[in-house]
Amino acid sequence: MTQATICILITIAVYLIGMLVIGFYYAKKNESTSDYFLGGRKLGPIVTAMSAEASDMSSYLLLGLPGLAYLSGMAEVGWTIIGLGAGTYFVWLVVARRLRRYTQVTNSITLPQFFSNRFHDKKCILTAIAAVIIVLFFIPYTAAGFAGCGKLFNALFGIDYMTAMLISALVIVGYTATGGFMAASITDLIQSIIMSFAIICVTCFAVGEAGGLGAVIDNASTLPGFLSMGATYVEKTGTSEPFDFLKIITTLSWGLGYMGMPHILLRFMAIEDEKKLKISRRIASTWVIISMAVVVLLGLAGKAMSANGLIPVLTGSASETVIVHISDLLSSFGIIPAFLAGLVLSGILACTMSTADSQLLAAASSVSENLLQETFKMKLKPRTSMMAARLTVLVIAVLGVLMAYDPNSSVFGIVSFAWAGFGAGFGPLVMCALFWKRTTLPGAIAGMVAGGAMTIIWKYLIGPLGGVFAIYELMPAFLIGLATIIAVSLMTKAPDQEIEQEFEMAKSDKALQS
Fold first, then answer.
1. CA-based angle 346:351:353, to the nearest 5?
2. pLDDT tier at 513 (50, 70, 90 boundaries)?
3. Is the pLDDT of residue 320 over 70?
4. Residues 122-159 pLDDT 10s
5. pLDDT beyond 70 at 450
6. Using CA atoms, how far apart are residues 274 and 96, in angstroms rounded to an integer?
7. Residue 13 counted as domain residue
8. How far is it, in rounded angstroms, from Cα 27 to Cα 21?
9. Burial class (CB in 10 A: 0-12, 13-18, 19+), 404
């Protein structure tokens, strides 16, 4: 084992142990399910902003996006970034405050619980459907995170892919299951700092090694369509193909997903003071745009480094390890660079873990609170409820590991499917529940089922037909879910007066005093 490898392993070990320590520390502070699942609504603006974005920016930030830029250039990744940036700003500006108020008015600590409380769903049908969607789509999302960890250690140290996934899963499950929401949020803040450092450090190094920014651009210019927002580079043929209007619109639709992400929406619900959401919005939006732009530059610099023979030529899903190969090269320059490389690689772990912990926690709350207690009417004591949540975390982690068993699985591809599922299943209902008083319970149920089901149908039945149907499943599924909510709500009896009064209260400052 080389000196550089030892330095990297020490850095990563310190990082992983630190995350576990935080989890065990906050385990002692969880006195109720509200503390465990929502941190007692005590998050400050900085923690709210950075934990929300760290939980959003999963392994696709340091693996998926630079890998996509490396393979095909600016078109797909560029329009994706624009869509995600716009979606981030919109959800902070429009959704965050109203959701914080409405969940306080309805005394809701999870998203499924809010749906049922909002429509006075005494049979908890909405809760049950929402909980099933959360568990169903968080399994592949978690699998993507574990796949990222496996690729990292396999590419760097030659450690068996499955073994690496298991080690990563154990650490994530360890601090999430013990410390709950506050542990996940504080670790997410720390992880966002590590991620930021990793992005800046490795990108500057990559650009420098590639010969400077001019050399990176010159290399990209030699590849047909690589720098165009209207064409995309085709790796197999070395040619370009048009990135037409339909592809642009569907790629921009990534931004729609933000309206339905449970692990992000929970942060809005947990902030201590809604007036501080403005600060959080500015921090979050700025960080997202800058970080995504920098990792695209990283992918372009990696392409130039491959052309110069500094790192291997990467094809297919292997392109998602470009940051790993650059970090490996960085570690060869001495002890200090090796420790820096260790921090960079810890940043990759941070991307994965900061999302996986939030997803596991959201899924745990859905099972223990929404399914067991609300749907099946099981009366659980706080300790028993938290135990059920912790067992759920473990089960979903195991299923995620099994789903990511194939080392050739694409992180970006897995994340895109799960993102579409949440965006279409929850997004239309979140918007209608918060901003359209006429939304009814039957409309909410029908819309949630239609959006979630259409994601799967379009992905596996309609999309493979090709042509105009070969578009990202989020957009058609979102529109169908929204149309279903509107149509069924207008065809059914209007909400009663009490529901309308709660809606009006959530619009006013009275919600702050309730």
1. 85
2. very low
3. yes
4. 888 998 898 888 888 877 777 777 777 777 777 666 77
5. yes
6. 8
7. yes
8. 10
9. buried
DSSP three-state, residue 43: strand
The residue among 431, 368, 426, 415 whose CA lies nearest residue 55 is: 415
Structure tokens at 421: 């599922």
C-beta of residue 215 within 8 angstroms of C-beta of residue 304: yes
Tokens read off for 439 = 């939304």
Which pLDDT score, from 0 to 100, does residue 466 have? 79
pLDDT reported for residue 433: 96
Query: Which residues neighbour 438 within 8 Å (Cβ) at sequence distance 6 or greater?
Result: 489, 490, 494, 495
Cβ atoms 514, 505 nearer than 8 A: yes
Token pair belonging to 197:
């450092």
What's the pTM? 0.81
Contact 431, 91 (CB under 8 A): no
The answer to whether 231 touches 74, Cβ cutoff 8 Å, is no
Q: Please tell me the number of Cα atoms within 13 Å of 514 on its side-chain side.
A: 16
Of the candidate ranges 427-431, 458-462, 467-471, the one whose mean pLDDT is the lowest: 467-471
Q: How many domains does the chain have?
A: 1
Does 485 reside within a domain? Answer: no
Whether residue 186 lies inside any domain: the answer is yes
Residue 241: strand, helix, or coil = strand
Rounded CA-CA distance 358/264 in Å is: 8
The alpha carbons of the chain give a radius of gyration, in whole angstroms, of 22
pLDDT in tens, 474-512: 999 999 999 999 999 999 999 999 999 999 998 876 545
What is the length of the chain? 514
Mean pLDDT of the chain: 82
* Residue 1, burial from CB neighbour count under 10 angstroms (0-12, 13-18, 19+): exposed
In a domain? residue 87: yes
The Cα 43–Cα 49 span in angstroms is: 10
| Residue numbers of the domain that contains 222 | 3-120+130-402
Q: Taking a C-beta distance cutoff of 8 angstroms, is the pair 148, 411 a contact?
A: yes
353 contacts 263 by C-beta, under 8 angstroms: no
Give the position of tokens 């099933």: 132
Q: What is the CATH number of the domain that holds 157?
A: 1.20.1730.10
